[in-house]
Design brief:
Layout: E1 23-29, E2 39-44, H1 47-55, E3 63-68, E4 85-96, E5 102-117, E6 122-126, H2 131-135
Parallel strand pairs: 1-3
Antiparallel strand pairs: 1-6, 2-5, 3-4, 4-5, 5-6
Length: 136
């Protein structure tokens, strides 16, 4: 009998590589976490978050920063309301509902650290995160 060999690992294609800078729009999320490599759905309904999603097409690449909220009851989270480690995420799909809310399909790319955040919810991040940096 002949043994079947596994195909060689696929080299990353140019479209698989996502480049992004150190300033990204922030999407705070409640009661959830996104990890690098994971693909997950998220519902977006807050006014600032909906505006961010509607502006994704104007970004150089469809990459946003996802940070979990410390308290899900906070309606307009600021810098201190978010956990400092989050995830850069590629927006794979954005579906608009009749209510004006969105459902997003996001793909986690790499861990990032929240450095600063301004009133427009743009953040300066540091990336990529290493396990040693996160443990600090």
């Amino acid at each position: 009998m002949s043994e079947k060999k596994a195909p060689p690992p696929r080299a990353p294609q140019d479209e698989d590589v996502v480049q992004f800078g150190d300033v990204l729009p922030v999407l705070p999320i409640r009661n959830a976490v996104l990890f690098p490599g994971a693909v997950a759905p998220f519902d977006v309904g807050r006014e600032k978050s909906v505006a961010l999603v509607e502006d994704v097409d104007n970004l150089p690449g469809p990459v946003i920063a996802i940070f979990a909220q410390r308290d899900p009851a906070t309606d307009d989270p600021g810098y201190d309301d978010l956990y400092p480690v989050g995830c850069a995420a590629r927006v794979l799909k954005a579906l608009k509902h009749s209510s004006g809310n969105y459902s997003l399909i996001l793909q986690g790319l790499v861990r990032i650290r929240l450095a600063t955040m301004d009133f427009r919810r743009l953040t300066r991040i540091s990336h990529p995160e290493t396990p040693a940096a996160v443990a600090q």
